[in-house]
């Protein structure tokens, strides 16, 4: 096939793949346009993330060159609109990835540690918890932000290792790869939300850097050695995340922490009303943590009872 024919074909394919419709955050079908000038009133962060991907840095005025690049690759990124015709503001997530959190989930559920492995997992988390509480005390925003940088690691590590196992053994995973990657993405969105409300200092960034280096490797080795222990540890970590968000909510209710307006990213991601506040955001994040808690304890239970994860369908599609 000639090069020009291949380019034409890839263009046609991309036009098929990119979809001719999309969803509004409230669930309805909406129109899809193509990149055009963005509506005024976007934040600095939104402007940064809404550069048309085919525009090269430093060449924004060179329309001919930009067009040539689009033509060459046959990719014309779609612009997704809300139901009212305003442009979808985010490149980091799309309307069909948004959801309403299940805030009716039991936030007090606790897995009683009965055997040695459970007790080891429980006390590992308790041992890690106390220095963290001493360090942050009631600086909830900072605590939440740094907690999320850690919480987003296990899902990615577990998902990656299950992915490799699936390839090695030529077998499916029962949806667990997807479930764990979904969890990692969800945790990262918690972080993206808190970063809109807080500006970490240099030593906090340095702490994240160091903690990630240690935690990623420790969790990787733990998951290789015993996935059921690794999932149990995460189950208890998530229980503590639920508890710390409950304390955050109590302090907001008492007026000890300002109930700021919810950031735009949170309103769109969790389909919250436009006048939502930090309290609403922390409430939906706590519900997410409770879901992660249940998912990880479930994954550990499956393996503790002598089964493989793939034998039981993973709870995907929570979002
Ligand atoms: Fe989280
Ligand atoms: Fe979580």
UniProtKB/TrEMBL annotation:
Cofactor: binding comment: Binds 2 iron ions per subunit.
Cofactor(s) required, per the database record: Fe cation
Region (Disordered): 41-60
Intracellular or extracellular location(s): Mitochondrion inner membrane
GO molecular function, one term: ubiquinol:oxygen oxidoreductase activity
EC number: 1.10.3.11
Catalyzed reactions: 2 a ubiquinol + O2 = 2 a ubiquinone + 2 H2O
TM segment ranges: none
One Pfam family cited in the UniProt record for this chain: AOX
Single Gene Ontology BP annotation: alternative respiration
InterPro entries found in the cross-reference section: AOX, AOX_sf
Membrane topology: Multi-pass membrane protein
Alphabetically ordered keywords of this record: Electron transport, Iron, Membrane, Metal-binding, Mitochondrion, Mitochondrion inner membrane, Oxidoreductase, Respiratory chain, Transit peptide, Transmembrane, Transmembrane helix, Transport
EC class: oxidoreductase
GO CC aspect terms: mitochondrial inner membrane; mitochondrion; respiratory chain complex
Family affiliation: Belongs to the alternative oxidase family.
Subunit structure: Homodimer; disulfide-linked.
Name of the protein this chain belongs to: Ubiquinol oxidase
